[in-house]
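Newbie here. two chains, one complex. Structure please?
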Amino acid sequence: MTVKISRRGLTTLVGSGLALSFAPHVGHAATTEITVLNWKGYGTDEPTALRAFAAATGIVVKHDYFNSEPEMLTKLQTNPGAYDVVLINSARTQQAQSAELIAPIDLAALPNAKDLAPTLKNSPSLQAGGKTYGVSWVWGMNSLAVRDGKVVGADSFTIFLDPKYVGRLALLDDTATAIGIGALLTSQSINDPKDLPAIGAKLKAMKPNVKLLWSSEDEWNKAFAADAFDISVYWSGAAVRSKVRHKLPVDFIIPKEGAIGWLDGLSMPVASKKKDAALTFINFMIDPKFYLPWAAQAGAPASANQAAMAQLPDSDLSKQIHKPEYLTKLQFMGPMPDERRQAFANLWEEVKASYA
Amino acid sequence: MALLAPAYLWLTLAVFLPLAVMLFFSFLHAAPFGHRPLILTLEQYRAFLQRPYLLDVAWRSISLALWTTGLCAAIGLPAAVALARATRGRSRQVLFLLIVLPFWTNGLVRIFSWTMVLREGGILDLALHAVLPSAPHFALLYSYPAIVIGLTHAYLPYMILTCYLSVSAIDDALIEAAQSMGARVPVIFAKIVLPLSLPGLMSGAILIFVPVIGCFMEPRILGGRVGVTMGTVIEDQFTQAFNWPLGAALSFIMLAVVLVIFGLTSRAVTTGPTAPLRA
């Protein structure tokens, strides 16, 4: 990415540089600069944490951002050497590895890795050829959310087909999640279902119940607050925010079919020339000392670090929702070939057309 | 010719270059990002044959465009006549400003304000219950009429402005002559005003029909589960499925459909019984 500096921007830069020069100096002679590729505002760019990290290690962290996973892969491919740490969803780690974009990581070199939840740390999606290519960082769930007090005793996704709730369901307009729910309802793998038509039939059968398809947290909150629906597919992290910030009566449930899990890992591009600094940063990212303030101040997804989750106060809703025992009940979104991804997209498009 | 060069250059850069890139994409097997090989194929254009549901979606988009254009014409032409015949001076300026106002507001803001008006317990619902407390709840949000309302509101200014240009050009003497021969208002409207404002109606219709066929914001936000149109399908290909070739091919197919529709209607209009009047 090229950076253009306008004259006004330059003045600001110079101004902030002056301001910085009055700040207490860090006692490191040599500073290293690393670049992280991530979604904007997703943890790695928390300013307070980065200042503390720079003060402690002398490593200054710069950022570049992506807006979609394919864009992230394209950036890795077209700018070799530009990035030192990259966030990759575990469903894409093997794809990046097979394109020889990321390097293996020795978990023994990361002191904080000992506290990572074993199911996440050793997730097969993060590994290839017996080596680890991604360090599990944060995770979350896409599952069932219902209106507390109005929907009682929901413990299965079959509630999406229940005639009692005609016109009261909101689905997430996302291919992997929609197909995943269909797969859970038909007892199949969410990543490699053998019977796609059965999934399509189940999803199409939800038509009388479907009121709307949501795609942003804000949209969900507004519609739920306006009583537009009572049952939905929702993100675990967003459910916490809806309850805490918006005081909405949300009940987040992991039904008996299980739920869809996602896991974001941190990887190191093959072409990085500062791998040691990158590893130091990744180790900091899985440190409870980084996670606890992030969770408290900004609201974070669940940490893959068990120690970090255990140190959250018991009153923390995120801790109550992201129970460690769920990790074994979830099916995590995993890698899949482009053709299957496309087949999923086509099926979901067909289902949506049938709702109209 | 040399003086036209900047205009042609601008057209080439702003219109044809991006279109040409998309046209090229539409013949690919997969978007050429990363290490993917370039495979030329016609498979994207066979989508309509392989996925019959797309035909329903296409028809839904066309009928949505017909509804919106029709409603805009039904409201826009009388509004234009009223503006041209019954107002002058300052009040006309104020009315024009009010008509153009929705134009100047951001599209998303406009749509989200409609969600507040149309939802259950929204502004319309509250107003209705203030008058009739026993009335059932009134909720249009997440329905087909909600999409049509949002689109009509967004595109009505085009129709009023183009019709106004035609209507204000009608010679008063024509209407006075008709009145002197005993023609009543409906007859004057049907035989003089309507035929003479056809050019305005047609250009308004073209300005509205094309963007409505490709619209995706209004259906997505106002339509709920019924909000599936070619626009949303194409948008999904670019943002969700990352299948740019299919999205591009669907866009060009819709462009072809629109051109065919215009080819047929413009012939009908130019050779129709009213053609001599417009000369």
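Moderator note: Chain B touches chain A at residues 30-31, 33-35, 51, 53-54, 56-57, 60, 115, 119-122, 141-142, 220-221, 224-228, 232-233, 236, 239-243 (CB under 8 Å). Chain B has a mean pLDDT of 89. Thread marked as resolved.
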